Structures are given as structure tokens and as C-alpha cells.
């Protein structure tokens, strides 16, 4: 499964980057591919490309605030969760998403 998405938290510091790392690491361990951009205090980093979006199966928004650029994911299933959900159980979340995406 190929995942694109955004990570962002209220302060734009710790949880933003922890959430991204947890998603990417869990995806690798499960044999998935994940490209997650961060929207933090220093702006957007590792911005997801149009090619990555075109190849993706799902968009994952792990955020505690409103994020910019969600319209880029039009046409993809979009899953929105708080950063805490990703940090606490990233593999479980990705497997749940996979089950729902593959059904459709």
C-alpha cells in the first residue's frame, strides 16, 4: 500500500515529527511505502509531490490542527486522525486503513 499525507500538531514541534516518523517506520516494517509531509512551526517540509499522490492508495492526515493542501488528495480515500493515534499504535492504524482501502 502506498500512503501520502500530512502530519501537524498544535505547537508544530514534537508531535508533528514524531507522528511522521512513526508512520514512515510502521509503513516500512509492513512493506508499505509512505511519504508524509510535515506542517510545523518552520513551515512545510518534505512536501508530497504530485507523482507520489498519483501513485498513492490513500491519504493519511495525522493532525491536531487545520492543515493546508488537503485538496491535492482529491480522488483518494482520506483518513484523518489525531497525531496521538499515530504515535500510540501506528501499525494497527495502518493495517486498519489497509483493510478499509482494499475493500473499496
| Broad structural category | alpha/beta
Task: Return the domain count.
Answer: 1
> Strands across the major sheet, in which order?
3-2-1-4-5
CATH domain class name: Alpha Beta
GO biological process, one term: phosphoenolpyruvate-dependent sugar phosphotransferase system
GO molecular function: kinase activity; protein-N(PI)-phosphohistidine-fructose phosphotransferase system transporter activity; protein-phosphocysteine-sugar phosphotransferase activity
Organism: Anaerostipes rhamnosivorans
Protein name: PTS system, fructose-specific IIB component
Describe this structure as you would to a colleague:
It contains 4 helices and 5 strands. The chain has helices spanning 14-30, 50-55, 83-88, 90-103, and strands at residues 2-8, 33-40, 43-45, 58-63, 78-81. A hairpin with a 2-residue loop joins strand 2 (33-40) and strand 3. The longest helix is centred in the N-terminal third of the chain and has 17 residues, at 14-30. The protein starts with a strand and ends with a helix. 32% of the residues are buried. The model has no long low-confidence stretch (mean pLDDT 95).
In short:
This protein is an alpha/beta fold.
List descriptors.
single chain; 104 residues; alpha/beta; Rossmann fold; five-stranded mixed beta sheet; 27% strand
Helices and strands in order:
Layout: E1 2-8, H1 14-30, E2 33-40, E3 43-45, H2 50-55, E4 58-63, E5 78-81, H3 83-88, H4 90-103
Parallel strand pairs: 1-2, 1-4, 4-5
Antiparallel strand pairs: 2-3
Amino acid at each position: 500500500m502506498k500512503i501520502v499525507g500530512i502530519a501537524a500538531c498544535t505547537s508544530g514541534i514534537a508531535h508533528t515529527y514524531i507522528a511522521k516518523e512513526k508512520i514512515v517506520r510502521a509503513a516500512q516494517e509492513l512493506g508499505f511505502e509512505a511519504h508524509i509531509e510535515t506542517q510545523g512551526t518552520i513551515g512545510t517540509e518534505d512536501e508530497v509531490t504530485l507523482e507520489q499522490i498519483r501513485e498513492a492508495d490513500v491519504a493519511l492526515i495525522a493532525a491536531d490542527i487545520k492543515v493546508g493542501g488537503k485538496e491535492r488528495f482529491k480522488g483518494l480515500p482520506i483518513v484523518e486522525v489525531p497525531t496521538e493515534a499515530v504515535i500510540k499504535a501506528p501499525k494497527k492504524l495502518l493495517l486498519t486503513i489497509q483493510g478499509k482501502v482494499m475493500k473499496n
